[in-house]
Each structure stands twice: as C-alpha cells, then as structure tokens.
C-alpha cells in the first residue's frame, strides 16, 4: 500500500475514532442522570477523579516502550524489537502493580478519614467501584505497546479502527447497565470486562498482524529496561507541565481577579482551542508513517511528511482563525446564554494563541517520533512556569486582558523553542522548513488544479 493511501486511511480512521469518543462522552450523560439522578451522578464524577486522571497517562513507560519498538523494528533490528516488547511488558506490569498499590493506600486513607461517608453513594459500593475502575484504567497501559505492533506493520488505521470499536463497546456496556437499572459497582465491572476482553484480542491480533514473534523470541534486557525507564520519565513530564499551565493559570486568575473572571477565562480558552481536535486528528494520521520512515532512515520522505503536516495544520488553523474572528464572539454569547461579557482583546489574544499552538503542537510529535522526549519536557515545564508567573504579573496590571497575555505567552515561547529544535531533529533548519514547505504547497496546489481540470474534461 502506498504512503498516500496509508495516510488517507489513517486520516479516515482518526476522524472515526474521534467521532466515537465524542459520542461516548455525550450519549452517556443523559442516561446517567436518568438512571441515577443528577446528584448521585455528580457524586460518581467526584469519586472517579482518581481513575480518570490515571486514564490520561500511561505514566510514560508504555509510550517509551512503544516508540523504541517501532524505531527498532523499522530499522530491521528484529531481535532488539522483540526484546523491547518483552522488557516493555515487564516494566508496564511492574508500574501497574505499583500504581495499584498506591491506589489501595490512597483509598484506605480516604476511608480512614471518612471521606466516603459524606457521599450519597454507599461507602462499600463506592470503594469497590472505584477500585475496579482504577484496575480497568491501569490495564489500558498495555495498549500503547500493543499499538506499536500495528504501527510497525504499517497498519495504523486498523489499530485506530479497533480502538474505536473498543470505545463503542465501552459505550454499549455502560448503556446496558444503566438501562437495566444497575448501580456503580455493576457499571465499573462492565468497563473492566470490556477492557480485559478487548486488550487480550488487541494483543493477539497485533502479534498476528506483525508476525515478528513467530520467528523471534524476546528476552528481558537490563540495558533496554534502563533506557525505557529513562525515556518514560521524560514522557511523564508532559501531563505534569500541562497541569502546571492549565491549573496554574486558572488558579492565578481566581486569586487575583475572582470567580467570574475564571469563568470567562476558562470558557474563552476552551472555545478558542476547540479546533485543536482537528490538529489532533492530523497528528494521529501522520505520526505512525512519520515514525516508521524515520526508523527506516528514509529522511527525505520523513521530512516531506513533516512539512506536509505543518502546512496542513497551518492552513486549517488560519481558516479557523478567520472563522473565529468573524463568528466566534457571536457563538460564545449564544453558548454562554449572554451571561458572560468578554473583552474583544481577550478573545483575539486567545485565538491568536490557537494559531501559534497549531505550529508547535504539530512539531511536538517529532520528539515522540524519534523517541527523545526529554527536551520537549524541559521546554514545557520552563514555559508553563514562566507563563504562570506572567499571568500573575499581567493580571495585576491589566486585569483579564493581562491574564490572556500571560496565558498566550506559553504559545509564543514554545513556537520559538520547539520548532527550531524539532526541525533540527528532522535534519532541517527552520528556514529550510519554510522554503521547502512553500515548494510543497505549490506542488500540492498544482496537483489539485490538475485533478479538477481532469474532472471538468
């Protein structure tokens, strides 16, 4: 299958995957409220904070193992790839054990201080349900490594489609439990059963698609173990610096400007970043092919994939910027029922930030593709801390406009740090990225024009 066709298939699968995820988030809510009541459902959301946070990250070690596996396999180091798989499975299993132990200790202390006593959900049900959900989220840590089998076999679209089916199964199991009138324990158990069944199938299917393990038996390697652990800590920093940025700036706005300013600040930031989901889909479609070409040392092809990704995202974000400039505030007023008044300067600052975010966020995938997360982690932590400080200083001086300036400062800093560093990893300078990107644009434009002319003829 050609590279163009794989990219197209990945893009379609990414759109489908994102659509199912959105449906999963939207459809269950009314059924929760109908089956359990709003207050009971609110308590359930509060209780699931721990498993939800765990679900956002595989602690970095699954990602590190997966990226190491793909790069070794693509460079034809088959035995090394098999060893990485074996070692990665061991590390993930150990981390799941440690995380489960810490979760049990946390639940014990919450129970000791009678936190569960204050809930509308019966204490025993709450403890059992949360424990089951934590285990379900932890078992998903394996999926990152399993995804690497599909990426290495150049079947990324199949992987995304299977993960979409998994999300649909989760949705179906949840709806089934709620419609039958069961409670939190049964709901959590349904999610765990889906995780167990799907991950086993996903693992076996991935091994069959790849075929590596028919000829190579992996061994645990201490050097590989050390390398994955080191890189895993780098990937772990990504959710950390994002938490510093998002929660830190929100906290600063609250203490300096008050609760209403927080509502305006967060709703504007949320709406202005709504198009980021489109950028995510482009990254999801391009990343597997980019990483595989890098692993094969096909740098010219990899560079072109990266430039096309940057070009696509920039064009989409530019169109998004224009649309949000014209219609954004009108939609915001409808969305918030005219309850919140946004200064125009705040709105334009945030949508400008979206434009900058699209560039560095697309480049960010390069650090994962070459499996060198440490530098990106350092950039993120430094920029997030600096942005929080600026948000405080500017909020004091210029109010909500100053808060927006402080928040957008992160995007400016990361554009100037991440794009040159990412381009260097790809063997290009920012100037070459710009000039060659322009040539790619002209080439794509000519191809599109010729295609339209042939259709007219």
TrEMBL record:
Lineage top rank: taxon: Bacteria
Intracellular or extracellular location(s): Cell membrane
UniProt keyword annotation of Membrane present: yes
Transmembrane residue ranges: 21-41, 53-75, 87-110, 126-150, 162-182, 308-333, 345-370, 377-394, 400-419
Keyword terms: Cell membrane, Membrane, Transmembrane, Transmembrane helix
Membrane topology: Multi-pass membrane protein
Keyword presence, Cell membrane: yes
Family matches, as InterPro entries: Poly_Biosynth_Transport
Name of the protein in question: Polysaccharide biosynthesis C-terminal domain-containing protein
Organism of provenance: Zobellia barbeyronii
């Amino acid at each position: 299958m050609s590279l163009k066709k794989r990219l197209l298939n990945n893009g379609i699968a990414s759109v489908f995957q994102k659509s199912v995820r959105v449906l999963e988030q939207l459809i269950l809510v009314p059924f929760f409220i109908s089956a359990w009541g709003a207050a009971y459902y609110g308590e359930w959301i509060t209780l699931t904070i721990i498993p939800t946070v765990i679900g956002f990250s595989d602690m970095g070690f699954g990602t590190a193992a997966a990226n190491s596996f793909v790069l070794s396999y693509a460079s034809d180091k088959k035995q090394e790839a098999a060893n990485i798989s074996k070692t990665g499975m061991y590390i993930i299993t150990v981390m799941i054990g440690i995380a489960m132990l810490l979760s049990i200790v946390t639940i014990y202390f919450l129970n000791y201080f009678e936190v569960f006593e204050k809930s509308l959900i019966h204490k025993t049900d709450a403890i059992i349900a949360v424990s089951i959900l934590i285990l379900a989220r932890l078992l998903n840590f394996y999926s990152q490594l399993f995804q690497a089998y599909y990426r290495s076999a150049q079947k990324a679209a199949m992987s995304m489609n299977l993960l979409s089916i998994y999300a649909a199964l989760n949705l179906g199991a949840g709806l089934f439990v709620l419609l039958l009138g069961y409670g939190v324990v049964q709901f959590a158990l349904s999610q765990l059963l889906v995780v167990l069944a799907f991950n086993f199938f996903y693992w076996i299917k991935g091994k069959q698609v790849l075929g590596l393990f028919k000829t190579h038996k992996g061994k645990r390697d201490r050097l590989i173990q050390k390398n994955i652990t080191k890189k895993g800590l780098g990937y772990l920093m990504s959710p950390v610096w994002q938490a510093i940025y998002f929660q830190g700036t929100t906290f600063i706005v609250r203490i300096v400007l008050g609760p209403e300013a927080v509502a305006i600040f967060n709703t504007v930031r949320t709406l202005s970043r709504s198009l980021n989901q489109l950028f995510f889909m482009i990254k999801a479609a391009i990343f597997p092919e980019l990483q595989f070409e890098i692993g094969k040392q096909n740098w010219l092809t990899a560079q072109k994939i990266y430039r096309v990704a940057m070009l696509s995202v920039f064009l989409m974000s530019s169109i998004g910027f224009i649309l949000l400039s014209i219609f954004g505030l009108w939609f915001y007023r409808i969305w918030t029922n005219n309850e919140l008044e946004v200064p125009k300067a705040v709105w334009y600052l945030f949508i400008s930030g979206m434009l900058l975010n699209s560039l560095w966020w697309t480049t960010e995938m390069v650090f994962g593709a070459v499996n060198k997360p440490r530098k990106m982690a350092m950039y993120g932590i430094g920029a997030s801390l600096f942005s929080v400080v600026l948000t405080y200083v500017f909020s004091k001086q210029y109010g909500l406009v100053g808060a927006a300036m402080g928040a957008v400062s992160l995007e400016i800093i990361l554009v100037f740090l991440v794009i040159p560093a990412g381009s260097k990893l790809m063997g290009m300078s920012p100037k070459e990225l710009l000039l060659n990107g322009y040539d790619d644009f002209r080439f794509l434009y000519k191809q599109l024009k010729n295609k339209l002319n042939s259709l007219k003829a």
